[in-house]
From TrEMBL:
InterPro entries (UniProt xref): Aspartic_peptidase_AS (IPR001969), Pepsin-like_plant (IPR034161), PEPTIDASE_A1 (IPR033121), Peptidase_aspartic_dom_sf (IPR021109), Plant_Aspart_Prot_A1 (IPR051708), TAXi_C (IPR032799), TAXi_N (IPR032861)
Protein name from the UniProt record: Peptidase A1 domain-containing protein
SUPFAM superfamilies to which the protein is assigned, alphabetical: Acid proteases
GO CC terms in record: extracellular region
Residue ranges occupied by any Peptidase A1 domain in the UniProt entry: 91-461
Organism: Saponaria officinalis (Common soapwort)
Length: 469
């Protein structure tokens, strides 16, 4: 059993510089353990929108319903997003867990989804019996690992409770989906580029023993290898909090646009960097804006002051993006949301501005009466010229930090050849939400983004992320 002296003593087991670089795997690239080669870009985008919509809807409802018994979720706890393959996540990493002295290899390989809005590290464990979702690889055999230690009931960590002589974390992120996990510590080993590895002792994680109503079934994803999540958000259980003394609360990534990529031309590797490896090599061209934690939320909140369409700054009250007294609202940067969501009152102004721009700058498109794929605004082009002019979108964050979304990312473009005359569909990559706004991972592409949690800053600059190495 774990004693109280171990709580914040995650240590680096190798004496090398305090930096780390991990390869990130996108769910829809061929090296993904849940890759489905038969899907078209339109089908992938439809899935992404469905994923994001479900996550946004429940997240908002959980916040505003915190005092209602109809939803048994506590928003001040480290929340997770449980459905592994059909919901929310775009990127994953490989980790090795545990110490198995009489076996080879001496640790167990697992794929964990990366979640910048989550505050828990967890994986399914062997003790779950039949109460787990489907995965190809064996469940983690925690009790065979010589470095696995459970917390005792007289020493349960925050937001866990004693049940059956162990400390249990119980978290809910859907009306029926629920995770129950044993609070424990273990050795996590992360493989870096170049064949090296770094091991971390005393990582607090959830050893999943009851995954209720998860959607994964063997027939849906027969090759699923995703077994859990690594939470990169704020909070006691998050990876950044636990490695604060090692990496200084700093991590970064530079993502490539996947949905528009040519799968015949392989995407170059993308990386998740920590500590010294995440620091910029040059000091020019960077924007910096405050990032903060609201109460005990695990999400990264930003202060949005205005939105521009092309060069036109919209007449939107910035208070629409502030957090309300009931905890709703605010603007979050989130890897668990695909598209960018703008709270409804501001979105109506934004959508009108986009419409006006398209109308004034094009005479070869028609607005679709029934947008496809779950989008809210789509156009078709069925005549010349072949070029459709679309605007840039700029989010003006506090500290004069302008986050520019280029024309290549403001609309999703799909070409149909099934008609006598081929036509193109242009759909706006922004959707409305009730109160909270989200900068989705689709709009993180081709930007180097650095999270500095110790100094409460988010740094970003445009970059060609295909050149990352």
């Amino acid at each position: 059993m774990v004693n109280s002296q171990i709580y914040f003593q995650c240590t680096l087991d190798t004496k090398i510089p305090n930096g780390l670089t991990l390869k990130m795997i996108h769910r829809d690239l061929p090296d993904s353990p849940i890759y489905r080669a038969n899907l078209t870009d339109k089908e992938r985008m439809k899935n992404y929108i469905k994923m994001s919509g479900a996550k946004v809807k429940f997240h908002e409802m959980s916040v505003v319903s915190k005092n209602k018994s109809s939803i048994s979720i506590q928003p001040n706890r480290a929340t997770i997003r449980p459905t592994m393959t059909e919901q929310y996540y775009q990127y994953m990493i490989q980790v090795r867990i545990g110490t198995f002295e009489n076996e080879y290899p001496t640790s167990k390989l697992h794929h964990l989804n990366v979640d910048t809005g989550g505050g828990l590290i967890w994986t399914q464990c062997e003790a779950a019996g039949d109460k787990h979702f489907y995965q190809v690889d064996p469940l983690y055999p925690a009790y065979r690992s010589s470095t696995y230690q459970q917390f005792s009931c007289n020493n349960c960590p925050p937001d866990s409770k004693c049940k059956g002589n162990v400390c249990i974390i119980e978290l809910k992120h859907d009306y029926n989906t629920k995770l129950s996990a044993i609070a424990a510590v273990e050795v996590f080993t992360l493989a870096t580029e170049g064949g090296h590895s770094q091991s971390f002792s005393n990582i607090i994680f959830g050893c999943g023993i009851d995954m209720q109503d998860f959607k994964e079934k063997e027939g849906n994803f027969p090759d699923n290898k995703v077994s859990g999540t690594i939470g990169m958000g704020y909070g006691f259980y998050g990876f950044m909090e636990q490695t604060q003394l090692i990496f200084g609360g700093i991590f970064s990534y530079c993502l490539q646009p996947i949905i528009t990529a040519s799968y015949s031309s392989p995407i170059t590797p993308m990386y998740l960097r920590f500590g010294n490896d995440a620091l910029p090599q040059t000091k020019t061209g960077w924007m910096s804006t405050p990032v903060y934690r609201y109460q005990q939320s695990t999400s990264y909140y930003l202060i949005l002051e205005a939105i521009s369409v092309d060069s036109w700054k919209l007449n939107i009250d910035p208070y629409l993006f502030r957090i309300n007294d009931d905890g709703s609202g605010g603007f979050v940067i989130d890897s668990g949301t695909t598209l960018t969501y703008i709270m409804k009152r501001a979105y109506l102004v934004f959508k009108l501005a986009i419409r006006n721009f398209i109308k004034q700058n094009n005479n070869n498109v028609h607005e679709m009466r029934k947008p496809e794929l779950g989008y809210d605004l789509c156009y078709t082009r069925a005549k010349r010229p072949k070029t459709v002019n679309v605007p840039t979108v700029t989010f003006h964050f506090s500290n004069n930090a302008d986050y520019v979304i280029p024309t290549t990312d403001t609309f999703f473009v799909s070409t149909s050849s099934g008609h006598r005359h081929p036509w193109e569909m242009y759909c706006m990559n922004f959707l409305p939400s009730d109160e909270m706004s989200y900068l989705g991972v689709f709009h993180h592409a081709n930007k180097r983004i650095i999270y500095d949690t110790r100094n409460s800053l988010l740094h970003f600059k445009p970059a060609d992320c295909s050149l990352e190495n």
